[in-house]
Amino acid sequence: MTAFTLAVSLVLFISIIKNLIIFNFENFLIHLVPKSAPKSLIILLVFIELIRLIIRPLTLMLRLNANLIAGHLIVIIIRRALLPIIMRTIPVSIALFLINIIETGVSIIQALVITILLHLYAKDSIN
């Protein structure tokens, strides 16, 4: 799972950086150094900002892994806690349908989280 989320993170983040450099290179360079930075610290600040830019896909990967694991844990906990109760009260097909609805909800939440994170990273890169 880690390899998949790292690949997704890298592909999406590299495309954001590539577009930023191609279409807005001046803004890219300006954001490497804060406006009020002393001239003696510019080289150090550029180095720190480049490291921050390189680390971003790794943090995105870790966040994606954490969200996927949390989603799976929620589904497993709900399934183990509710399935015996549901199986006694309603037919199996309806119980499985309800569990699938819960899994779909968790997947939608995970998709929302990755979309928000990518939006925030892209917005931070542009502004």
Q: Describe it for me?
A:
This protein is mostly helical. It is elongated and about 70 Å long. The protein is 87% helix and 0% strand. The protein has one domain.
Short recap of the structure:
With 127 residues, the protein is an all-alpha fold. It has helices spanning 2-23, 25-30, 42-89, 92-126.
Features:
mainly alpha; 127 residues
Low-confidence stretches: none
| Number of separate strands | 0
Distance between the termini: 32 Å
In this structure, how is the largest beta sheet organized?
none
Beta percentage is under 5%
Tally of structural domains: 1
Structural class: mainly alpha
How are helices and strands ordered from N to C?
HHHH
**Form type:** elongated
Q: Total number of helical segments?
A: 4
Gyration radius (Cα, Å) is 21 Å
Mean pLDDT: 78
Helix percent band: over 70%
Multimeric organization: single chain
Layout of secondary structure:
Blueprint: H1 2-23, H2 25-30, H3 42-89, H4 92-126
